[in-house]
Amino acid sequence: MATIQDVAKLAGLSRTTVSRVINRHPYVTDEKKRLVMNAMEELNYVPNSSARRLRKQQTETIAVYVPRITNPFFSQMVEVMGNYASDRGYQLILCQTSYSRNQEINYLELLKTKQVDGLILTSIENEWSSIEPYMNYGPIMLCNEYNDQAQVPTVYLDQIEGAYIGTRHLIEQGHTRIAYCSGDNHASRVASDRYTGYKKALEEAGIVPREDWFLTNAYSIDDGKRVFNDIAKMNDRPTAVFTGSDEVAAGIWKEALNHKWDVPNHLAIIGFDDQPVADLIGLTTIRQPIENMGQQAMELMIDSIQHKLPSKKKEIKLDFELVKRRST
Amino acid sequence: MATIQDVAKLAGLSRTTVSRVINRHPYVTDEKKRLVMNAMEELNYVPNSSARRLRKQQTETIAVYVPRITNPFFSQMVEVMGNYASDRGYQLILCQTSYSRNQEINYLELLKTKQVDGLILTSIENEWSSIEPYMNYGPIMLCNEYNDQAQVPTVYLDQIEGAYIGTRHLIEQGHTRIAYCSGDNHASRVASDRYTGYKKALEEAGIVPREDWFLTNAYSIDDGKRVFNDIAKMNDRPTAVFTGSDEVAAGIWKEALNHKWDVPNHLAIIGFDDQPVADLIGLTTIRQPIENMGQQAMELMIDSIQHKLPSKKKEIKLDFELVKRRST
DNA sequence: TCTATCTATGAAAACGGTTTCATGATTTCG
DNA sequence: CGAAATCATGAAACCGTTTTCATAGATAGA
Q: InterPro entries given for it (chains A, B) (predicted)?
């Protein structure tokens, strides 16, 4: 591999001048510039990025944390983030925490060892106090997830509102017996806020939330199937169910079909996210503006890296949209 | 940030000895080792990865190319690759080519500039001759995609066989009027081989493939919907359709339902991949062992980086499985 | 015309590690 | 007991850039 030294020699100039050409510094005559360009071309030279990183103390790489990339919500997020980063000359390192606290902490070392310039968390597994110390080593941002203690830029949706909209919709459809079904991540405000929004809608309508219709630990299609069976076994059943994701909703519906239940007449189901599958099967759902979120977060991150902005709380709140289909 | 020099000073030793401790070299007394450990602890020291990369000439990072991460086939692939890489201490850089030749070439520079130790291609947009020169800069591997000219390790499935199995299944169900529907990437053998397999099954059964039932450019759910409408408009219609992905199949089915067609009686549909959505909607499909492929590819890649194996053709062929559901 | 500023270039330092080489102490072995 | 091998450590070179500093010529302003 040719080095900058080789180029300098061939061009009959110093390393410094070659470097100036590469980095588009002023004060290089056109003639020398041409000499350097030709030499680079001839040697098929490209600057070594490790050396560059070391000297410039920056990596042009950003880490994005997701629980699992196979979750369509997160893969959509990563898609837009990756494309936007690429447009601005940044690489994206994918960190899958697999819902594991340890894995999350492991990956945080990336920032400390200067393998990335900054990181974007789309979910949090640990208490914020475990994450905060890493803020010394580079910018950290939240996207989707949010946290009261975190003094960092945050692009998010008001999940209270999202759940409220969904639950209200069910109430407007005439339901009063509405179950609630979600994942439960204690370090995450997303889950608790949704429950708050759900209760708010119920209470406004004079309905008392029932403990036995509070179903947790549901993330996947399979979890949805299990949830359906739990509901089917109840003596006193709900007529509608609010879910925390389209996958779970799809699982419930699928299993309901297996048991010859009619959706929405025997059970109305509302999903969350508006993933492609929701349109496919006709699921009413609450759309999250994923593209918008992902792009804004990445934009903010790159800006704060490039302008070395001090980290501070800055909230960007986006809006939900109810998408009515035939499951409600 | 503390450097190795700071640690050395605090421990009263040389940089060399500190480096030895970090890298678990032999020939360091337990006492000095302890001194170094304490100093590192006290200074909250971690080695700077850029410096390390520069000196060791390796990055412990691998690039994975996919067309789009939102395609569930590829997100599953990336999930297992990412997890396996992480287990072995490697990072994964995600490169989305967006089906663009330019974008693919852009990303290839990553290898040349030594930002990654190697790269795994799950699809190819350019002619192999455009990619080959980059083999000088580090190991390249194929996973899923394959190419006759590429003298590189390849983990793949025999797509002729996959399409053959699917088409045979349709024939065994009594169909003789079978349409073919897929994407069309000319640089990829996946597409052409599938068509070969399809024709092989037809010809064995004495059926002549029909040009007007050869439908291309189908990748997404929306494409599937379009394809259905194309079929519906035909005067002389097929009774079954072979598709190149579960998404496309799902789109066809969805649109068929909209038009009150009965699947499989009016139109039998077979998908490809066996993604979660296939189980959800009851789609017959051809399962690809994605986890297995991804893991084997990543394993091969890391081994060849660590043992500096010379790049050569080495084919690992895995098998398909037909999953029968109610769409056929 | 003289000085201040701007332009153009290169030598050397710096980034923060790892590896090579040299050296002395200690152990092993014939 | 002497030579060879092994153990333990540090100085210095090295990885390949960018940045700082120094220098000199050209230009502008007074």
A: HTH_LacI, Lambda_DNA-bd_dom_sf, Peripla_BP/Lac1_sug-bd_dom, Peripla_BP_I
Are A204 and A109 part of one and the same domain?
Answer: no
Statement to judge: residues B163 and B273 lie in one domain: yes
Q: Answer yes or no: do A254 and B115 touch at CB < 8 A.
A: no
CA A147, A149, A150, A153: dihedral to nearest 10 degrees?
70
Whether the per-residue pLDDT at B187 is higher than 80: the answer is no
Q: Which of B93, B114, B247 has the CB atom closest to A50's CB atom?
A: B114
How does pLDDT run across B272-281, given as a tens digit for each residue?
999 999 998 9
> CATH number for the domain including B111?
3.40.50.2300
CA distance B275 to B73: 7
The Cα A311–Cα A141 span in angstroms is: 9
SS in 3 state form for B256-296? HHHCCCCCCCCCEEECCECCHHHHHHCCEEEECCHHHHHHH
Mean pLDDT of chain A: 94
Sign for the pseudo-dihedral over CA of B107, B111, B116, B117: positive
Q: Which of B52, B55, B69 to mutate to test the interface with A (most CBs of A within 10 A)?
A: B69
Domain range for B35:
4-47
* A28 Cβ within 7 A of any nucleic strand C atom: yes
B242 and B253 in a single domain? The answer is yes
Residue A53, in any domain of the structure: no
Tell whether B21 is covered by a domain. Answer: yes
Distance B13 CA to D1 C1' (A): 35
Residue at minimum CA to C1' distance from nucleotide D15: B55
